[in-house]
Protein backbone atom coordinates (compact mmCIF):
# COMPACT_ATOMS: atom_id res chain seq x y z
CA UNK A 1 0.00 0.00 0.00
CA UNK A 2 1.29 3.45 -0.86
CA UNK A 3 1.89 5.35 2.34
CA UNK A 4 -0.24 8.50 2.68
CA UNK A 5 1.23 11.94 3.28
CA UNK A 6 1.30 13.03 6.93
CA UNK A 7 2.19 16.27 8.70
CA UNK A 8 5.91 16.98 9.06
CA UNK A 9 5.53 17.91 12.75
CA UNK A 10 3.73 16.83 15.88
CA UNK A 11 1.91 18.96 18.47
CA UNK A 12 3.50 19.91 21.80
CA UNK A 13 1.10 22.56 23.14
CA UNK A 14 -2.60 23.12 22.52
CA UNK A 15 -5.10 25.95 22.94
CA UNK A 16 -8.78 25.31 23.68
CA UNK A 17 -11.44 26.63 21.30
CA UNK A 18 -15.17 26.67 21.98
CA UNK A 19 -18.07 26.11 19.63
CA UNK A 20 -20.97 28.51 20.19
CA UNK A 21 -24.63 28.13 19.21
CA UNK A 22 -26.16 29.57 16.08
CA UNK A 23 -28.42 31.85 18.18
CA UNK A 24 -25.37 33.28 19.96
CA UNK A 25 -23.64 33.93 16.65
CA UNK A 26 -26.66 35.71 15.17
CA UNK A 27 -26.59 38.11 18.14
CA UNK A 28 -22.82 38.59 18.10
CA UNK A 29 -22.49 39.33 14.40
CA UNK A 30 -25.30 41.90 14.56
CA UNK A 31 -23.55 43.57 17.51
CA UNK A 32 -20.34 43.56 15.44
CA UNK A 33 -22.18 45.51 12.72
CA UNK A 34 -21.71 42.58 10.35
CA UNK A 35 -17.99 43.26 10.27
CA UNK A 36 -16.02 40.11 11.13
CA UNK A 37 -13.05 42.19 12.31
CA UNK A 38 -15.29 43.42 15.16
CA UNK A 39 -15.93 39.94 16.57
CA UNK A 40 -14.23 38.82 19.75
CA UNK A 41 -11.96 35.87 18.96
CA UNK A 42 -13.70 33.96 21.79
CA UNK A 43 -16.81 34.09 19.64
CA UNK A 44 -15.04 32.39 16.74
CA UNK A 45 -14.61 28.60 16.55
CA UNK A 46 -12.22 28.33 13.59
CA UNK A 47 -10.47 31.56 12.65
CA UNK A 48 -9.59 31.90 8.98
CA UNK A 49 -9.63 35.69 8.97
CA UNK A 50 -5.96 35.70 8.07
CA UNK A 51 -2.80 33.60 7.98
CA UNK A 52 -0.92 36.67 9.17
CA UNK A 53 0.78 36.24 12.54
CA UNK A 54 -1.63 33.44 13.43
CA UNK A 55 0.67 30.47 12.85
CA UNK A 56 2.16 28.19 15.50
CA UNK A 57 5.82 28.77 16.30
CA UNK A 58 8.05 25.73 16.70
CA UNK A 59 9.89 24.57 19.81
CA UNK A 60 13.08 25.89 18.22
CA UNK A 61 11.54 29.32 17.64
CA UNK A 62 10.35 29.47 21.26
CA UNK A 63 13.86 28.50 22.38
CA UNK A 64 15.26 31.33 20.28
CA UNK A 65 12.89 33.73 22.11
CA UNK A 66 14.82 33.00 25.33
CA UNK A 67 18.11 33.86 23.66
CA UNK A 68 17.00 37.30 22.45
CA UNK A 69 19.48 40.12 22.96
CA UNK A 70 17.51 43.25 23.90
CA UNK A 71 20.36 45.73 23.47
CA UNK A 72 19.22 48.96 21.86
CA UNK A 73 22.15 49.04 19.43
CA UNK A 74 24.16 46.25 17.86
CA UNK A 75 22.22 43.36 19.41
CA UNK A 76 23.39 39.86 18.50
CA UNK A 77 19.76 39.14 17.53
CA UNK A 78 20.06 41.78 14.82
CA UNK A 79 23.14 40.08 13.38
CA UNK A 80 21.52 36.67 13.61
CA UNK A 81 18.58 37.98 11.58
CA UNK A 82 20.84 39.85 9.14
CA UNK A 83 22.77 36.66 8.44
CA UNK A 84 19.59 34.62 7.97
CA UNK A 85 18.13 37.17 5.53
CA UNK A 86 21.34 37.35 3.54
CA UNK A 87 21.68 33.58 3.52
CA UNK A 88 18.12 32.98 2.32
CA UNK A 89 17.35 35.98 0.10
CA UNK A 90 20.81 37.16 -0.95
CA UNK A 91 20.08 40.77 0.03
CA UNK A 92 23.08 42.36 1.65
CA UNK A 93 21.26 45.24 3.34
CA UNK A 94 18.20 45.02 5.51
CA UNK A 95 16.05 47.12 7.82
CA UNK A 96 13.87 45.53 10.50
CA UNK A 97 10.29 46.86 10.78
CA UNK A 98 7.34 45.99 12.98
CA UNK A 99 5.40 44.42 10.11
CA UNK A 100 5.06 44.36 6.31
CA UNK A 101 3.16 47.63 5.86
CA UNK A 102 5.86 49.37 7.89
CA UNK A 103 8.46 48.14 5.41
CA UNK A 104 6.21 49.53 2.66
CA UNK A 105 5.97 52.84 4.47
CA UNK A 106 9.74 53.12 4.80
CA UNK A 107 10.42 52.07 1.19
CA UNK A 108 7.70 54.24 -0.33
CA UNK A 109 8.76 57.24 1.76
CA UNK A 110 12.16 56.77 0.14
CA UNK A 111 11.04 56.21 -3.46
CA UNK A 112 7.51 57.49 -4.19
CA UNK A 113 6.37 61.06 -4.87
CA UNK A 114 2.90 62.47 -5.50
CA UNK A 115 1.53 61.59 -8.95
CA UNK A 116 3.81 58.56 -9.43
CA UNK A 117 2.67 55.36 -11.08
CA UNK A 118 3.51 51.96 -9.62
CA UNK A 119 2.74 49.02 -11.89
CA UNK A 120 2.66 45.42 -10.69
CA UNK A 121 0.44 42.39 -10.38
CA UNK A 122 -2.60 42.97 -8.11
CA UNK A 123 -1.23 45.09 -5.27
CA UNK A 124 -2.06 44.00 -1.75
CA UNK A 125 -4.52 46.24 0.15
CA UNK A 126 -1.95 47.88 2.44
CA UNK A 127 0.44 48.33 -0.48
CA UNK A 128 -2.22 50.03 -2.55
CA UNK A 129 -3.30 52.15 0.40
CA UNK A 130 0.28 53.30 1.04
CA UNK A 131 0.55 54.21 -2.66
CA UNK A 132 -2.77 56.05 -2.79
CA UNK A 133 -2.11 57.76 0.53
CA UNK A 134 0.82 59.39 -1.29
CA UNK A 135 -1.54 60.49 -4.07
CA UNK A 136 0.08 58.11 -6.50
CA UNK A 137 -1.40 55.27 -8.54
CA UNK A 138 -1.18 51.48 -8.38
CA UNK A 139 -1.67 49.95 -11.85
CA UNK A 140 -2.70 46.31 -11.99
CA UNK A 141 -0.94 44.46 -14.83
CA UNK A 142 -1.90 40.90 -13.81
CA UNK A 143 -2.60 38.42 -16.63
CA UNK A 144 -6.30 38.18 -17.56
CA UNK A 145 -6.46 34.49 -16.61
CA UNK A 146 -6.23 35.50 -12.95
CA UNK A 147 -9.66 37.10 -13.06
CA UNK A 148 -11.51 33.96 -14.14
CA UNK A 149 -11.67 31.51 -11.24
CA UNK A 150 -12.40 28.61 -13.59
CA UNK A 151 -9.39 29.00 -15.90
CA UNK A 152 -6.63 26.58 -14.98
CA UNK A 153 -3.29 28.39 -15.23
CA UNK A 154 -0.26 27.36 -13.15
CA UNK A 155 0.89 30.94 -12.51
CA UNK A 156 -2.11 33.20 -12.14
CA UNK A 157 0.04 35.73 -10.27
CA UNK A 158 2.05 36.50 -13.42
CA UNK A 159 2.46 40.00 -14.77
CA UNK A 160 1.20 40.54 -18.30
CA UNK A 161 4.36 41.85 -19.96
CA UNK A 162 2.37 43.61 -22.69
CA UNK A 163 0.29 45.48 -20.11
CA UNK A 164 3.45 46.35 -18.19
CA UNK A 165 5.30 47.66 -21.25
CA UNK A 166 2.26 49.74 -22.14
CA UNK A 167 2.43 51.49 -18.76
CA UNK A 168 6.18 51.98 -19.16
CA UNK A 169 5.97 53.41 -22.68
CA UNK A 170 2.92 55.61 -22.09
CA UNK A 171 4.29 57.40 -19.03
CA UNK A 172 7.49 59.33 -18.37
CA UNK A 173 10.05 57.03 -16.77
CA UNK A 174 10.69 59.47 -13.93
CA UNK A 175 7.05 59.00 -12.86
CA UNK A 176 7.61 55.27 -12.34
CA UNK A 177 9.91 54.88 -9.33
CA UNK A 178 9.48 51.12 -9.00
CA UNK A 179 7.62 48.02 -10.14
CA UNK A 180 6.13 45.81 -7.42
CA UNK A 181 5.74 42.08 -7.92
CA UNK A 182 3.74 40.39 -5.18
CA UNK A 183 4.79 36.77 -4.55
CA UNK A 184 2.45 34.95 -4.19
CA UNK A 185 -0.22 37.34 -5.38
CA UNK A 186 -2.62 37.54 -2.42
CA UNK A 187 -5.30 39.65 -4.10
CA UNK A 188 -5.72 37.29 -7.05
CA UNK A 189 -6.05 34.29 -4.77
CA UNK A 190 -2.64 33.36 -3.37
CA UNK A 191 -1.47 32.67 -6.90
CA UNK A 192 2.22 32.21 -7.73
CA UNK A 193 4.45 34.07 -10.17
CA UNK A 194 6.69 31.92 -12.38
CA UNK A 195 10.45 32.24 -12.49
CA UNK A 196 10.23 32.95 -16.19
CA UNK A 197 7.86 35.85 -15.51
CA UNK A 198 10.16 37.28 -12.84
CA UNK A 199 13.05 37.09 -15.32
CA UNK A 200 11.01 38.86 -18.01
CA UNK A 201 9.86 41.61 -15.65
CA UNK A 202 13.45 42.17 -14.62
CA UNK A 203 14.56 42.39 -18.26
CA UNK A 204 11.86 44.90 -19.20
CA UNK A 205 12.52 46.95 -16.06
CA UNK A 206 16.26 47.09 -16.81
CA UNK A 207 15.49 48.34 -20.30
CA UNK A 208 13.72 51.33 -18.77
CA UNK A 209 16.04 51.67 -15.78
CA UNK A 210 13.27 51.06 -13.23
CA UNK A 211 13.94 49.03 -10.08
CA UNK A 212 11.85 45.96 -9.21
CA UNK A 213 10.78 45.19 -5.65
CA UNK A 214 9.06 42.04 -4.46
CA UNK A 215 6.26 42.17 -1.95
CA UNK A 216 7.48 38.90 -0.51
CA UNK A 217 5.12 37.85 2.29
CA UNK A 218 4.66 34.38 0.77
CA UNK A 219 7.90 33.96 -1.16
CA UNK A 220 8.47 30.41 0.12
CA UNK A 221 5.03 29.24 -1.00
CA UNK A 222 5.77 30.83 -4.37
CA UNK A 223 9.03 28.86 -4.56
CA UNK A 224 7.15 25.65 -3.73
CA UNK A 225 4.81 26.20 -6.67
CA UNK A 226 7.77 26.88 -8.99
CA UNK A 227 9.34 23.60 -7.88
CA UNK A 228 6.09 21.74 -8.47
CA UNK A 229 4.89 23.42 -11.67
CA UNK A 230 7.71 25.04 -13.62
CA UNK A 231 9.95 23.13 -16.01
CA UNK A 232 13.52 22.76 -14.85
CA UNK A 233 12.93 23.31 -11.13
CA UNK A 234 11.71 19.97 -9.78
CA UNK A 235 15.21 18.93 -8.67
CA UNK A 236 16.14 22.29 -7.15
CA UNK A 237 15.76 22.89 -3.42
CA UNK A 238 13.32 25.54 -2.15
CA UNK A 239 16.27 27.64 -0.97
CA UNK A 240 17.96 27.47 -4.37
CA UNK A 241 14.73 28.59 -6.02
CA UNK A 242 14.26 31.40 -3.48
CA UNK A 243 17.80 32.66 -4.15
CA UNK A 244 17.17 32.71 -7.88
CA UNK A 245 13.81 34.49 -7.47
CA UNK A 246 15.34 37.31 -5.45
CA UNK A 247 18.30 37.59 -7.86
CA UNK A 248 15.87 39.29 -10.27
CA UNK A 249 14.85 41.95 -7.73
CA UNK A 250 16.45 45.12 -6.40
CA UNK A 251 14.80 44.72 -3.04
CA UNK A 252 11.94 43.23 -1.07
CA UNK A 253 9.37 44.15 1.52
CA UNK A 254 8.47 41.36 3.89
CA UNK A 255 5.59 40.67 6.22
CA UNK A 256 7.31 38.09 8.41
CA UNK A 257 3.93 37.18 9.87
CA UNK A 258 3.33 35.03 6.79
CA UNK A 259 6.03 32.72 5.47
CA UNK A 260 8.49 33.35 8.28
CA UNK A 261 5.92 31.94 10.75
CA UNK A 262 6.21 34.57 13.49
CA UNK A 263 3.44 36.48 15.23
CA UNK A 264 4.90 39.92 14.51
CA UNK A 265 7.65 41.42 12.39
CA UNK A 266 8.74 42.55 8.96
CA UNK A 267 11.73 43.82 7.07
CA UNK A 268 13.04 45.55 4.03
CA UNK A 269 15.76 43.77 2.04
CA UNK A 270 17.94 45.90 -0.24
CA UNK A 271 20.78 45.47 -2.69
CA UNK A 272 22.02 49.05 -2.94
CA UNK A 273 23.82 50.89 -0.18
CA UNK A 274 22.54 54.21 -1.48
CA UNK A 275 18.87 53.20 -1.08
CA UNK A 276 19.64 51.64 2.29
CA UNK A 277 21.14 54.91 3.54
CA UNK A 278 18.12 56.93 2.43
CA UNK A 279 15.62 54.40 3.77
CA UNK A 280 17.46 54.23 7.12
CA UNK A 281 16.39 57.79 7.87
CA UNK A 282 12.71 56.86 7.55
CA UNK A 283 13.25 53.62 9.42
CA UNK A 284 14.67 55.48 12.40
CA UNK A 285 11.87 58.05 12.15
CA UNK A 286 8.95 55.60 11.93
CA UNK A 287 10.18 52.28 13.31
CA UNK A 288 13.21 52.54 15.55
CA UNK A 289 16.97 52.44 15.40
CA UNK A 290 18.27 50.32 12.53
CA UNK A 291 19.37 47.36 14.64
CA UNK A 292 15.87 46.69 16.00
CA UNK A 293 13.42 48.87 14.02
CA UNK A 294 10.11 47.86 15.51
CA UNK A 295 11.09 44.44 16.80
CA UNK A 296 12.42 43.17 20.11
CA UNK A 297 15.57 41.05 20.07
CA UNK A 298 13.64 37.88 20.88
CA UNK A 299 11.30 38.50 17.95
CA UNK A 300 14.26 38.93 15.59
CA UNK A 301 15.67 35.60 16.85
CA UNK A 302 12.38 33.77 16.29
CA UNK A 303 12.15 35.33 12.83
CA UNK A 304 15.66 34.21 11.86
CA UNK A 305 14.75 30.64 12.84
CA UNK A 306 11.35 30.95 11.12
CA UNK A 307 12.96 31.92 7.81
CA UNK A 308 14.79 28.58 7.80
CA UNK A 309 11.73 26.55 8.84
CA UNK A 310 9.47 28.31 6.36
CA UNK A 311 11.77 27.36 3.47
CA UNK A 312 11.87 23.62 4.27
CA UNK A 313 10.24 21.52 1.59
CA UNK A 314 8.55 19.09 4.01
CA UNK A 315 6.90 21.94 5.90
CA UNK A 316 5.70 23.64 2.70
CA UNK A 317 4.35 20.38 1.36
CA UNK A 318 2.34 19.79 4.54
CA UNK A 319 0.99 23.30 4.44
CA UNK A 320 0.05 23.52 0.81
CA UNK A 321 -1.46 20.02 0.83
CA UNK A 322 -3.69 21.02 3.74
CA UNK A 323 -4.96 24.07 1.88
CA UNK A 324 -5.58 21.89 -1.20
CA UNK A 325 -7.36 19.27 0.95
CA UNK A 326 -9.92 21.90 1.92
CA UNK A 327 -10.14 23.23 -1.62
CA UNK A 328 -10.75 19.80 -3.10
CA UNK A 329 -13.59 19.03 -0.66
CA UNK A 330 -15.31 22.23 -1.77
CA UNK A 331 -14.63 21.73 -5.46
CA UNK A 332 -15.99 18.17 -5.30
CA UNK A 333 -19.31 19.62 -4.09
CA UNK A 334 -19.45 22.12 -6.94
CA UNK A 335 -18.59 25.14 -4.83
CA UNK A 336 -16.97 27.83 -7.02
CA UNK A 337 -13.41 28.37 -5.82
CA UNK A 338 -10.33 29.99 -7.39
CA UNK A 339 -8.48 27.21 -9.19
CA UNK A 340 -5.72 26.12 -8.99
CA UNK A 341 -5.89 26.43 -5.20
CA UNK A 342 -3.78 29.17 -3.64
CA UNK A 343 -0.84 28.58 -1.33
CA UNK A 344 -2.20 30.10 1.85
CA UNK A 345 -5.93 30.17 1.33
CA UNK A 346 -8.96 28.99 -0.56
CA UNK A 347 -10.86 31.75 -2.29
CA UNK A 348 -14.58 31.23 -2.82
CA UNK A 349 -16.01 33.04 -5.85
CA UNK A 350 -18.90 34.85 -4.15
CA UNK A 351 -20.51 36.16 -7.37
CA UNK A 352 -20.88 32.56 -8.56
CA UNK A 353 -21.97 31.33 -5.10
CA UNK A 354 -24.71 33.96 -4.72
CA UNK A 355 -25.39 35.01 -8.34
CA UNK A 356 -28.82 36.44 -7.47
CA UNK A 357 -27.43 39.18 -5.17
CA UNK A 358 -26.60 42.59 -6.72
CA UNK A 359 -22.96 43.72 -6.43
CA UNK A 360 -24.10 46.82 -4.52
CA UNK A 361 -25.05 44.53 -1.62
CA UNK A 362 -21.46 43.34 -1.01
CA UNK A 363 -21.78 39.72 -1.99
CA UNK A 364 -18.56 38.29 -0.51
CA UNK A 365 -19.15 40.03 2.81
CA UNK A 366 -22.69 38.64 2.89
CA UNK A 367 -21.31 35.16 2.29
CA UNK A 368 -18.70 35.55 5.05
CA UNK A 369 -21.44 36.61 7.50
CA UNK A 370 -23.55 33.58 6.54
CA UNK A 371 -20.58 31.24 7.03
CA UNK A 372 -19.95 32.68 10.47
CA UNK A 373 -23.57 32.21 11.48
CA UNK A 374 -23.58 28.68 10.09
CA UNK A 375 -20.52 27.32 11.85
CA UNK A 376 -18.57 29.97 13.76
CA UNK A 377 -15.94 30.01 10.99
CA UNK A 378 -14.47 33.47 10.39
CA UNK A 379 -13.42 34.19 6.79
CA UNK A 380 -12.68 37.55 5.21
CA UNK A 381 -14.00 39.53 2.28
CA UNK A 382 -11.58 40.26 -0.57
CA UNK A 383 -13.99 42.21 -2.70
CA UNK A 384 -15.71 45.52 -3.12
CA UNK A 385 -15.57 46.61 0.53
CA UNK A 386 -11.83 46.02 0.62
CA UNK A 387 -11.46 47.72 -2.78
CA UNK A 388 -12.40 51.05 -1.17
CA UNK A 389 -13.75 53.99 -3.15
CA UNK A 390 -11.91 55.42 -6.13
CA UNK A 391 -9.81 58.24 -4.64
CA UNK A 392 -10.59 60.55 -7.57
CA UNK A 393 -14.30 59.91 -8.22
CA UNK A 394 -15.33 58.81 -4.72
CA UNK A 395 -17.37 55.98 -6.22
CA UNK A 396 -17.35 52.40 -4.96
CA UNK A 397 -14.93 50.18 -6.86
CA UNK A 398 -16.19 46.76 -7.86
CA UNK A 399 -13.22 44.50 -8.63
CA UNK A 400 -13.53 41.70 -11.20
CA UNK A 401 -13.23 39.14 -8.46
CA UNK A 402 -15.53 39.24 -5.46
CA UNK A 403 -13.97 36.67 -3.13
CA UNK A 404 -14.40 35.19 0.31
CA UNK A 405 -10.97 34.15 1.51
CA UNK A 406 -10.44 31.20 3.85
CA UNK A 407 -6.87 31.80 5.02
CA UNK A 408 -5.30 28.84 6.76
CA UNK A 409 -2.97 29.69 9.66
CA UNK A 410 0.33 27.80 9.52
CA UNK A 411 0.70 24.60 11.62
CA UNK A 412 -2.41 25.56 13.62
CA UNK A 413 -5.46 23.54 12.59
CA UNK A 414 -5.81 19.84 11.75
CA UNK A 415 -7.45 18.21 8.76
CA UNK A 416 -10.53 17.51 10.91
CA UNK A 417 -10.89 21.27 11.22
CA UNK A 418 -10.72 21.43 7.42
CA UNK A 419 -13.57 18.90 7.21
CA UNK A 420 -15.64 20.99 9.60
CA UNK A 421 -15.03 24.15 7.55
CA UNK A 422 -15.98 22.37 4.33
CA UNK A 423 -19.22 21.06 5.91
CA UNK A 424 -20.19 24.55 7.08
CA UNK A 425 -19.64 26.01 3.61
CA UNK A 426 -21.53 23.16 1.95
CA UNK A 427 -24.47 23.82 4.31
CA UNK A 428 -24.51 27.49 3.30
CA UNK A 429 -24.27 26.45 -0.35
CA UNK A 430 -27.30 24.19 0.03
CA UNK A 431 -29.41 27.03 1.44
CA UNK A 432 -27.99 29.76 -0.84
CA UNK A 433 -31.34 30.41 -2.56
CA UNK A 434 -32.77 31.53 0.78
CA UNK A 435 -30.09 34.26 1.11
CA UNK A 436 -32.07 36.97 -0.63
CA UNK A 437 -30.65 40.10 1.02
CA UNK A 438 -27.11 41.39 1.15
CA UNK A 439 -25.61 44.19 3.22
CA UNK A 440 -25.35 47.96 3.10
CA UNK A 441 -22.71 50.29 4.51
CA UNK A 442 -23.76 52.44 7.45
CA UNK A 443 -20.37 53.96 8.32
CA UNK A 444 -16.94 53.81 6.68
CA UNK A 445 -13.42 55.21 6.93
CA UNK A 446 -11.89 57.04 3.94
CA UNK A 447 -9.15 54.44 3.40
CA UNK A 448 -8.75 50.73 4.30
CA UNK A 449 -12.42 50.84 5.25
CA UNK A 450 -12.89 47.07 5.52
CA UNK A 451 -11.20 46.97 8.92
CA UNK A 452 -13.71 49.27 10.62
CA UNK A 453 -16.75 49.44 8.34
CA UNK A 454 -20.21 49.21 9.93
CA UNK A 455 -22.89 47.37 7.97
CA UNK A 456 -26.54 46.43 8.23
CA UNK A 457 -28.88 44.13 6.35
CA UNK A 458 -29.73 45.73 2.99
C1 LIG B 1 0.23 40.90 4.80
C2 LIG B 1 0.76 41.48 3.59
C3 LIG B 1 1.30 42.77 3.58
C4 LIG B 1 1.29 43.67 4.80
O1 LIG B 1 1.96 43.10 5.86
P1 LIG B 1 1.52 43.35 7.39
O2 LIG B 1 2.52 42.54 8.14
O3 LIG B 1 0.12 42.88 7.54
O4 LIG B 1 1.65 44.79 7.64
C5 LIG B 1 1.81 43.23 2.40
N1 LIG B 1 1.75 42.49 1.27
C6 LIG B 1 1.23 41.27 1.24
C7 LIG B 1 1.20 40.48 -0.02
C8 LIG B 1 0.70 40.71 2.40
O5 LIG B 1 0.14 39.51 2.36
Helix-strand blueprint:
Blueprint: H1 22-31, E1 46-47, H2 59-66, H3 76-89, E2 93-97, H4 100-111, E3 117-120, H5 125-133, E4 137-140, H6 161-170, E5 179-182, H7 195-208, E6 212-215, H8 219-229, H9 238-247, E7 251-255, E8 266-270, H10 273-286, H11 297-310, H12 313-332, E9 345-349, H13 350-353, H14 363-375, E10 377-378, E11 380-382, E12 403-407, H15 415-430, E13 439-443, E14 454-457
Parallel strand pairs: 1-10, 3-4, 5-6, 6-7
Antiparallel strand pairs: 2-8, 7-8, 9-12, 11-12, 13-14
Helix pairs in contact: 1-14, 2-11, 3-11, 4-5, 4-10, 6-7, 8-9, 12-15, 14-15
The structure holds pyridoxal-5'-phosphate.
Notes on the structure:
This protein is of the alpha/beta class. It is 39% helix and 12% strand. It is built from 15 helices and 14 strands. The strands form 5 sheets. The chain has a 5-stranded mixed sheet with strand order 2-8-7-6-5, with helices on both faces. Strands 9-12-11 form a 3-stranded antiparallel sheet. The longest helix has 20 residues, at 313-332. Residues 52, 99-101, 124, 126-127, 182, 186, 215, 217, 255, 257-258, 266 line the site of pyridoxal-5'-phosphate.
Amino acid sequence: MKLPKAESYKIKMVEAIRLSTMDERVTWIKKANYNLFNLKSDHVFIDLLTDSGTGAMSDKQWSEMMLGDESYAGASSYYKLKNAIQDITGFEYFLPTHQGRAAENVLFSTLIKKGDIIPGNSHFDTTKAHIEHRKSYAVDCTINEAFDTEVNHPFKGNIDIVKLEKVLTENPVEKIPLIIVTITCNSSGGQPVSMQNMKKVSKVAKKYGIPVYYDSARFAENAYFIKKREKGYSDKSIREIVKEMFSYADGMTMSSKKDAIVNMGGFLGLRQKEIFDRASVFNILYEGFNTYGGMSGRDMNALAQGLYEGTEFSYLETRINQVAFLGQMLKDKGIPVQFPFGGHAIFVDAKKFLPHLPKEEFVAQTLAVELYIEGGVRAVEIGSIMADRDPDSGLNRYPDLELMRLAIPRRTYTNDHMKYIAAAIINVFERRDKITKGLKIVKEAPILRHFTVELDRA
